[in-house]
Known about the structure:
The structure is a single chain. 24% of the residues lie in helices and 21% in strands. It has helices at 15-25, 31-38, 74-81, 88-92, 134-185, 194-201, 207-220, 226-229, and strands spanning 124-127, 130-133, 278-279, 287-294, 299-306, 315-319, 328-335, 342-349, 352-353, 357-360, 370-382, 385-392, 395-401, 409-415, 428-435. Among the domains are: 15-92, no CATH class; 267-435, Jelly Rolls (Sandwich), CATH 2.60.120. The strands form 3 sheets. Strands 4, 6, 7, 8, 9, 10 and 14 form a 7-stranded antiparallel beta sheet that branches. A 6-stranded antiparallel beta sheet has the order 3-15-5-11-12-13, with no helix packed on it. Strands 1-2 form a two-stranded antiparallel ribbon. The protein is of the alpha+beta class. It is built from 8 helices and 15 strands.
Amino acid sequence: MAxxxxxxxxxSPGLAGFKRGFLDDGKPPDPAASLRELLACPKEPAAPPPAxxxxxxxxxxxxxxxxxxxxxxxxxxxxxxxxxVFDREWFISEPEExxxxxxxxxxxxxxxxxxxxxxxxxxxVERDGEVYTVHEAELLDAFAKAKAAGTDAERRETxxxxxxxxxxxxxxxxxxxxxxxxxLSKPLQLAxxxxxxxxxxxxxxxxxxLVAAAAAAxxxxxxxxxxxxxxxxxxxxxSASVPKRPKREKLEEEAVEGASSWDDLDPAGxxxxxxxxxxxxxxxxxxxxxxxxxxxNDALVLRVSVPATSDIWALNVVPRDHDDGATLLxxxxxxxxxxxxxxxxxxxxxDDWGRASKVSLPRRPPLFGLQEAELVFKxxxxxxxxxxxxxxxxxxxxxxxxxxxxxxxxxxVLVPTTDDFGNRENITIHSAWWGKLGMLxxxxxxxVRR
Length: 450
């Protein structure tokens, strides 16, 4: 890479020449001459740089070709090749010269107002006693027009809102007047007699025949009208046009062959578990007890204790392959503090909860404040469905119909330690029994949603 030179072969006082001149003798060149050289428009022949001192190394007029020059900046190349004239330590050191003294009134005249009328070649315009240039006057006119347009738009918007409010007020007044006129033009309607309204409201299928028979008996002098409805009068036939309300199914106590007695459980059905009594408030992992052989075995009997201060507890009937709680056939979950006490029943398939059933906690039997109470989950297989009856001390708390087919298989009961939000549950299980039991007279069928 060759050094910059002028037409006559001398070194060019361009940017490199400016740096060399400044670094060699410590005196900067003429600023005007340097500017002209940088702009490539020389006006006067530039003087050659001063000769180096006798002790200095001879100046190299040409730079050797660097094979790695594409990967280095021009500043690195220049400083490496000009070590004879570039002093790194002096360049990065602090200057020892003291700054020049600047007079206090150095910038005093810089903030004085300038009388533009006295500047030659500047066209001025006078507005409201002030002198402005032509361009300043044009800007002021544009600002005034924009302000006037904005004020006009706000005025029109205000007038439009006032007109709309007036129209709405007139419409409301006309509507009120119309309603008042219609009310006054209607004839006065008297309310029917209270007795007649009461008779019609309590009328049931077959009641019209009873009323007619009672009226006939009263006209014949047979005594009070209630004789017609009693055993002495004719029996009233039920109405054929209104269907009868279906009677609620009652589950009587079943005599199941091979079933254990509720008062005398077969010891062979006791679930073997060394961790009884087990408490969900102190356990680190959920409790899972196997329930093999459904439907040959269909009743789970637990001895549980639930403190009155417990907020929530739950029991789940699951298949043996429940995928870490992703499938729950039946979820029984009393919650004491939710809406004054709520019993939640639900199921879950593929880790997706179904439609929950939420009812108030039953007063009888209680589900909190239990001390070694008998909690029974009775699974009753019916044609096409399986019902789960939950009883506490032989009193049914709820009943639930499974939403899936449950063939003969092995089941399990899963007792969690926390809910889905991490709240600690509190229930203690003292023992478990799994076997065959019959239905109790207190069992009632579930209310199935259509």
